[in-house]
Amino acid sequence: MTVTRQWLAKQWLIVVGACALLGAPIAFAQQAPAAADRTTTTAPDTAGVDWNQLSPAQQQVLQTFEKRWKELPPARQRRLSEAAARWGSMTPEQRSQTRARFNNWRELPAERRARIRQRYEDFRSLPPDQRLRQNFKRFQNLTPERRRELLNLWRDATPEQRQKARELARERREKRKE
User: Fold this and answer.
1) Quick one: which of 105, 82, 94 has its CA closest to 28?
2) Could you give the C-alpha distances from 107 to 11, 12, 56, 118, 137, in angstroms and in order?
3) Is the dihedral of CA 109, 112, 118, 121 positive or negative?
4) Tell me: the pLDDT tens digits for 154-165?
5) Within 10 A of 21 (CB to CB), how many other CB atoms are there?
6) Are 24 and 128 in contact (CB under 8 A)?
7) Whole-Å CA distances, 109 to 97, 106, 120
8) Exposed, middle or buried: residue 58 (CB in 10 Å: 0-12, 13-18, 19+)?
9) Are 80 and 65 in contact (CB under 8 A)?
10) For 52-112, what is the HEC assignment?
11) Which is nearest to 57 in space by CA: 76, 39, 32, 36?
12) What is the tens place of the pLDDT at every residue in 8-49?
């Protein structure tokens, strides 16, 4: 597969994932395997995660936060512990992609990151039916060439890629219901 084709395939997965999530909120955290995460997933929203509750692998990933862990807001502690658990279950390729995306995010100007965050919050505050309409309108506003490109990417996707996009959308819908 050429670099351009790989890039297009990744872009396609992003778009398909977004389209699959039209009726569901975007959730950044996925459930990690129980063995990798010893934190309580049913904890109330106000409960944080004690440093000693983290697995050794999670502590290693989060070592830069150790000294100020108790000062972090409980919600941030939970998100970080879940992310550390996911990190432990990633393949080396997934970790590399995650690092690259994080570095790309960090390199964006602060104003651009703020605008992206605001647009995300605006989108999240919409009722589900309006999110669907908004994403459909964005798709319709794409150039015919771009829409055709996305459709071709979907057609060229392997069954595994399509199934993964569907499963991700299903997980996010279920997570939203909780």
Assistant:
1) 82
2) 20, 23, 31, 18, 30
3) negative
4) 788 888 888 887
5) 21
6) yes
7) 21, 8, 17
8) buried
9) yes
10) HHCCHHHHHHCHHHHHHHHHCCHHHHHHHHHHHHHHHHCCHHHHHHHHHHHHHHHHCCHHH
11) 36
12) 555 555 554 444 443 333 333 333 333 333 334 444 556 889
Residues 6 or more apart in contact with residue 43 via CB below 8 angstroms: 49, 78
Read off φ and ψ for residue 133, nearest 5 degrees: -60, -45
Phi, psi (deg, nearest 5) at residue 49: -120, 125
For the question of whether the overall pTM of this predicted structure is more than 0.70, the answer is no
The whole-number average pLDDT for the span 51-79 is 92
Which residue type is seen at 141?
Answer: N
26/172 Cα distance (integer angstroms)? 7
| Tokens 């104003």, residue located | 111
